[in-house]
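Today's session is about reading a structure prediction critically. Students often jump straight to the picture, but the first step is always the sequence itself: look for stretches that repeat, for charged clusters, for runs of hydrophobic residues. Only then move on to the predicted structure, which in these notes is written as discrete structure tokens rather than atom positions. Here is the chain we will use throughout the hour.
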Amino acid sequence: MAIPTLPMPTGAYPVGTVSAYLEDVSRPDPWVADVPTRELMISLWYPAARSSGPRARYLTRTESAEVLAAGRQGAVAPDALSSVRTHAFPDAPLDPGLRELPLIVLSPGFTRPRAILTSIGEDLASHGYVAVAIDHTYETAATTFPDGRVAAFALGHGSARTPEFWRKVKTGRARDASFVLDQLLGSNPPWAGAARLAPDRIGMAGHSAGGAATIAAMLADERIRAGSNVDGSTDALIPDTGLDRPFLFLGRDGQYSPGDGPAADTWARDWPLLTGWKRWLVVAGAKHQSFTDLGLLADQFGLPLGAAISGLRTMTITRTYLRAFFDQHLRDVRRAPFDNLNADHPEVRSCLPLDQPAGGGSR
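Below is the predicted structure for this chain, in token form.
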């Protein structure tokens, strides 16, 4: 079988990457009682000065086995995801000519590692962003720390999930995101390029639980100026006073179109409380994992998700719309006006409730 490969980044910059260990000593781990601090692993992708050397590893063999076991993909070799070809160069120098770099926080779906958002992170970096993806420890199939420890998923597969549980997931992820921002913008950052980040140009996007957590993070941290929820049902977190920063809903048609059921109803509940610029878009033919690397990798492994369009096509759409959204609201760039993108992406349609306007201003 050919080596599974992520799609090439579409921007002009080569992509560098680095992983870092962070420890929040101000709080215990929310999930494991005998862990006295919150330990996190993050991956950063950034525009690099040059492209040379080996490519970054996607997952370790242990992480690959745990992720595939969690997805019940017994037909794929346990180490299959450790061979995925990425496009970023570990520890490559940051492009020296760049300053005031916008930063995008990425949060993966429940049980999923930060690696599944690599295609999004690499593409943003190739266009001059810094993207940082978070492993939310013990919610993830496996997180490997620099000292060799592996923190496995600790929350039990198949057990009942109450509304209180999911609220804890989303608000806990908001705390993780704020802590990561504190570290990157603080006096002793874990990455040498952090001094060139623009603290007033921060966005966040996530998939599934990570997308829903974006709302919680924006409510908790005003540094996050724009956010996107990709295919994740939400909790009733937005206060009656609303959330006035730009927000993008992007999800599956048939699941997140108005009237589709409980998941879409959560977006409909939140819609009037989003009082800034906003869009509600759905993609025809996509499945839940189509918006992540797992969709396009499943196609390469011969394990299609039942989607009517390829994982590569859905990833192309996801990259395009997220980048255009952040270009507009963090950079004031409108080379391709957001509302004109649909002409080249007929799978995407707007699903505004008829009695709610889309919202105006750009920031």
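Discussion point for the tutorial: The first helix runs from residue 61 to 70.
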